[in-house]
Amino acid sequence: SAVISQKPSRDICQRGTSLTIQCQVDSQVTMMFWYRQQPGQSLTLIATANQGSEATYESGFVIDKFPISRPNLTFSTLTVSNMSPEDSSIYLCSVGEGDNEQFFGPGTRLTVL
Amino acid sequence: EDQVTQSPEALRLQEGESSSLNCSYTVSGLRGLFWYRQDPGKGPEFLFTLYSAGEEKEKERLKATLTKKESFLHITAPKPEDSATYLCAPSGGAQKLVFGQGTRLTINP
To answer: Do residues B7 and B103 make contact, with C-beta atoms less than 8 angstroms apart?
Structure first.
């Protein structure tokens, strides 16, 4: 299985600022995904990031708020822009190939004051 | 709209007491149903993918089964280290997973 790392592991930010989260995979993968897990809740897909194309956002998520980069087959970033306390969540990246398996990173715990 | 319901929300068992977790789903064109284990403060850990009704998969004390509307995660003779939140997530394609709320399992020694 792919080994996925995320940076930072946690952060505390002031409202109105932005944070960029990095996701690094130890092998080349076609599909990468970004999820949000709000406190006490399950995971919600934010967007799908494929290398060489614009990210595809799910309903309720927009590029201006969550810009995503996918410069190569092993790396992606998610930026949480103009943060408010409601953005306090765990943000997770995942990778998958076909319909077989999808593996998750350890997550980034974000607290917005 | 795709929907997933997991039950029970929480389950407390004694060590060695077997039980089952339920995942009911409504997904158009199911491509696969994923099961994960999530420990506090960590990302979900992949367990199984099931693809068609009647399929079963096993891993240690866990066995997952699939019907056209439900999936079950059977836990046989659990140990305290099996305590975690178990998540199911059907996929209607392009690996877009729709997660249930999870079942929080506690195994008492």
So the answer is: yes
Q: What is the DSSP string of A2-43?
A: --EEEE-SEEEE-TT--EEEEEEESS--SEEEEEEE-TT--E
Confidence band for A50, pLDDT divided at 50, 70 and 90 = confident
Q: Which residues of A touch B41 (CB under 8 A)?
A: 107, 109
- Chain A residue with Cα closest to B101: A42
pLDDT of the residue at A19 = 98
A74: left (phi over 0), alpha (psi -120 to 50) or beta: alpha
pLDDT tens track for B84-109: 999 999 988 767 889 999 999 999 99
**Cα–Cα distance between B95 and B102 in angstroms, integer?**
19
B57 inside 8 A of chain A by CB: no
